[in-house]
Predict the 3D structure of the following.
Amino acid sequence: MLDVRPDAERRWVHLPDDRHVPIHLLPRETTVLPHDRPIVTYDHYGPDARRAAELLRSRRFDSAAALEGGIDEYARLVDPSLPRYREGEGERGLLLQQLPRPDTGCLAYFLGDLVAREAVLIDPGVDTDPYLEALRGGAWHLTAIVETHTHADHLAGHSALHLATDAPIYVSHRSPAQYPHRTLSEGEAIDFGSEELRILETPGHTLDHLTLRVRDSAFVGDTLLIGACGRTDLGDGSPEMLWDSLTGKLMRLPDEVEVYPAHFGPRHLLPARYVSTIGFERATNEALSQPSREAFVRYMSEGWPPKPTGFERIVRANLEG
Ligand SMILES: [Fe+2]
């Protein structure tokens, strides 16, 4: 694997066991590359990698090829834990990292302003070591810990993370949380660097459910899952409210908005996929294909697996701290 990006981008993420030759140096550095092994060039999205592979083929590296879609695509399809970054105007840049926990099928999210080094964590799990490591490794300042909702399926890590970093915990104003926290309501925002996490209230899976938006991404918790939606029978949820949140809020977002859910994989009867788009879910999601609110309410009351044992205890523990 040959990374052809500039030094600055490489600092944020690179693939293991690769080599690095920035594309502007490639024309005079081809002599150091091996002719007896295939070379796959890569960048973040793909275009520089294609140009680099073309150049290499013209220099008799016949099997040189580019990683189509770059790290961004690779992270979506193969390894969601690879950080992705979005450029902005001028010096701005946003880093987005999915933090999957295969044992629980949960996804937490790390978002950072690459210039200001300010970050937020969404739905962190109870083992905080990976988050603290990421924060230390990138010299990030954690400005907020955000819960999309009160989880019933796993223990949340907000309090441990708050103790370790002093970052405030944010939850919906409708949450009955008993630990020290700040509340969020529709239309409010949390700033980190020059980025902004905007709040949509999407009750239904639970009464206190929030969807968080940054640029063209929506962190939807369990309101919308890939091909499905979160169940409404593990606490104070309501299928009627969920239908209204889905149709009245999320389905009003543009098709290109990326959907980042809180769960993935077979443990939650979901595909092993980590990201979708509003447009794709609009077209394919079974929950959204219900023809009416009444049909959706019926759909939500039939065919679900038994409630997981101990979910009431988990909810209590997550509300206490
Ligand atoms: Fe949930």
Remarks:
- The CA atoms of residues 180 and 243 lie 31 Å apart.
